[in-house]
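Could someone model S-adenosylmethionine with this protein?
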Amino acid sequence: MEFSHKPVLLNECMEGLAVREDGVYLDGTLGGGGHSSEILRRLTTGRLIGIDRDGEAIAAASVRLRALQTDGQPRFDALRGNFHDAKELLRGIGVEKIDGALLDLGVSSHQLDEGARGFSYHADAPLDMRMDTSQPLTAAAIVNEWSESDIARVLRDWGEENWAAQIARVICDRRKAAPILTTGQLVDVIDAAIPKKLREKDGSHPARRSFQALRIAVNDELAPLEQALRDIASLLNPGGRLCVIAFHSLEDRVVKNTFRSLCNPCTCPPSFPVCVCGKRATAKPVTKKPITASEAELAGNPRARSATLRIIEAIGSWNQ
Ligand SMILES: C[S@@+](CC[C@H](N)C(=O)[O-])C[C@H]1O[C@@H](n2cnc3c(N)ncnc32)[C@H](O)[C@@H]1O
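Reply:
Sure, complex below.
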């Protein structure tokens, strides 16, 4: 299957990153290499490092990006791994500092569209949902092996699912007879757990929240995100920008709060006339409000509807 993914908020990200031709840039979510292609086009003597935990993404993006290196300059490295480990991964190839970084969080259209990966409630496939297919934990393991209370917690915390307890109960009931092994079976279970007349009125699929929750749990997407953002921000040279695109409110909240704390870490009570806590800002906001997709972009890419882009700029030495 061809790797297809339309980069979201592409112009806004390029403007936000303000790529310097001789700079060093990190794309922590390489995917199909859409954003990376545009970064690479702007480099002459600079360097781009792309990270993805999905081997298929690394392979597809590497082919696409290497084709852009017509002058043979070694300006692009692809690293298979987790951007939560960006500091160590970059150190491993001798990169200590960068001039900008981009994170386009979540799954790619390719991962969603490739039914066999089990991310989509529209296609019947094995209940997998791993971005990194070498990791042991799958959605099937959570659904069939975790306790009812742990499943309910995942659905509530990571899916903000009002019917979390009921869905967890029906899952545990059904799995007594036979394991739930496919996305189709899970959709049927969720369908049975949510009373038809009490479903969300916005027309969204009844399984949307549960699938989001399981995907976040399988890929451990949220808990390490704050530290990952701090680590990547700490790699930035002064003036370097960090651009992050989030696709749901839980993710965006972590980005917003982490950026706020990097830009204003002071913990002194507002009544203090001067700061005594000694915590100094290491970044400043570039965007006061999150950037969202234009009507023109939405017309060509409905997936951009839930995207929010936030940007900060490093302002000095890092001591946190
Ligand atoms: C939305 S897509 C990125 C698309 C890319 N910007 C493009 O234009 O083609 C997200 C990609 O990030 C990867 N990903 C998500 N979380 C990751 C993480 N913590 N570490 C490394 N890669 C991650 C996914 O495997 C997926 O390929």
